[in-house]
Amino acid sequence: MIGTADYRHLPQLPAVEHNTADLAQALRDATVLGLPAVRCHVVQDPTTVPELLDPVYELGEKAEDTLLVYYCGHGLRDSDSTDLYLALTGSREGAGYTATGYQHLRAALRASPARRKIVIIDCCFSGRATRTLGATGDLAAQAVVDGAYVLTASPRDHAALAPEGERHTAFTGELLHLLRNGVRDAPETLDPETLFRELQSRLVAKNRPRPQRSQENDVGTQPLVRNRARASLTAAAGPVVDVEVQTAMMATGLRLARMLRSLGRYRDALPVLRMILQARVPELEGDSVDVHLELAELLIETGQDTEAIETLESAFQLTHKRFGPEALTVCRRLAELLQSAGNHRQACDVLRHALDKLVDDGRRH
């Protein structure tokens, strides 16, 4: 997310700062995209070309599936060329060399191995920049990147709009509305083309600049975000990520919690483990037994025996589906806690279950 709101020689665009912050927050929302914070980088008010482009190259190298780049600020034209320039804080109108040439951003996008690239440009033009834009074809066509979907805020002969008194620019404000509220009568996931059609309809109805788009290889038809208009009010939503990623996240969280516990930072470790278990990924229920055990031990160490028993009981239910060494540990620790709490009958039932499982396993082998 790249935004230039503060300028020394051009009109100020206070809405841009809200655009980048709110769009990043929307994309991190698990009910929209669930983008991890470490994968969502905000560049605010870049003063140099490297400051704007380096993050694109760095994150682009790591991207495998999708690379999304958003820019909002002034879009400029040089006095002697038809190229598009993305304004920096010190840029001057008619002096493209004081800004970032779009061709350099396009090169950064092409360098990424990502299978899909999405470019969103919300440029505000004024004065001569608006007039020269009309002589050279629409912005989306000039901004095209091979294998990419490019969405722009306005056609060639109009300025993008930043309405005074509104929190966001016209274009990004409508985009945020769609991400936050979804689209009725659309599938459970929204692709860029659906977003474009809805954006165009809403903006034209308000007599605001008409957005443009350009795409390669039909990438605009591939799902991008969840449709919140179709979200169930009762079902818990989670990040749109593969089970392999969920597994890695669980393992990483468990390692972090154990490190924090070894440092005596119990208060920091507890929410990490609780968060992992709240994700409730059905395919990973068996793998979460270790997390239950770690959380139970932490709760015992901090004197929270009641919650520890509840945690071990949840893990005990999982052992009905999968029985192994960790299941024996669950049974033993749960029986000890139940006995300490005076629940001797329940403790015996847990141990009887463990013995029955061991006998069954012995017969099978």
What's the helix and strand layout?
Elements: E1 2-3, H1 14-28, E2 43-44, H2 49-62, E3 66-77, E4 84-86, E5 100-101, H3 102-111, E6 116-124, H4 128-133, H5 139-142, E7 148-152, H6 170-181, E8 189-190, H7 192-205, E9 212-215, E10 225-226, H8 243-262, H9 266-278, H10 289-301, H11 305-318, H12 325-340, H13 344-364
Parallel strand pairs: 1-2, 1-3, 3-6, 6-7
Antiparallel strand pairs: 3-4, 4-5, 7-9, 8-10
Describe the structure in your own words:
- The protein is 47% helix and 12% strand.
- The chain is an alpha/beta fold and 365 residues long.
- Strands 1, 2, 3, 4, 5, 6, 7 and 9 form an eight-stranded mixed sheet that branches. Strands 8-10 form a two-stranded antiparallel ribbon.
- Helix 1 links the parallel strand 1 and strand 2.
- Helix 1 packs parallel to helix 6, helix 6 packs across helix 7 and helix 8 packs antiparallel against helix 9.
- It starts with a strand and ends with a helix.
- About 5% of the residues have low confidence.
Short synopsis of the structure:
Helix content is 47%, strand content 12%. It has helices at residues 14-28, 49-62, 102-111, 128-133, 139-142, 170-181, 192-205, 243-262, 266-278, 289-301, 305-318, 325-340, 344-364, and strands at residues 2-3, 43-44, 66-77, 84-86, 100-101, 116-124, 148-152, 189-190, 212-215, 225-226.
